[in-house]
Design goal:
Radius of gyration: 14 Å
Strand order of the largest sheet: 1-3-5-7-10-12
Largest sheet: 6 strands, parallel
Helix content: under 10%
Shape: globular
Structural class: mainly beta
Order of helices and strands: EEEEEEEEEHEEE
Distance between the termini: 27 Å
């Protein structure tokens, strides 16, 4: 229990941050976006709140982003589209609204997309548009799985 300390950004060589199932609360500290070598950010099954900063695009080494089952809100930043090596991005079971940015959809590996794209798992709350929290994301053209 507790929150992610702002000092996390001082771990300049951190490659993997896996804190799922820890009952963490509060927003993601801005300093987390200073972790330029971070490859895996696994935050699922907590009670995190707030939004994802557009600074997410600075994490150029990020391959794995898992945020499902939290209470993060707002929209999914288009800056995720800058993460060309991203393989997994799971956003479902949060409080996001709006559309999945086209820049993110373009990272998907699909029949009409570049074979160089790495993003094989992209999940969001996109199954039922009558739900309070809904992300518009076509399945399978953009999202791999809708919840």
């Amino acid at each position: 229990a507790g929150s992610i300390p702002s000092q996390i950004g001082q771990l300049s060589r951190l490659k993997k941050f896996d804190v799922n199932y820890n009952l963490l609360t509060g927003p993601l500290p801005e300093s987390i976006y200073d972790l330029s070598q971070l490859e895996e950010l696994d935050l699922n099954d907590n009670a995190l709140t707030g939004t994802i900063s557009t600074r997410i695009g600075q994490l150029e080494e990020l391959r794995f982003f898992q945020l499902y089952r939290n209470r993060v809100e707002g929209s999914i930043p288009s800056e995720f589209g800058l993460l060309t090596g991203l393989e997994v991005a799971n956003f479902d079971n949060n409080e996001f609204k709006g559309g999945m940015p086209e820049e993110v959809c373009q990272l998907r590996d699909g029949p009409d997309m570049s074979p160089d794209n790495m993003l094989t798992s992209l999940t969001a709350d996109c199954k039922d548009s009558s739900e309070e929290y809904y992300v518009e994301c076509e399945e399978p053209d953009c999202c791999s799985t809708c919840f």
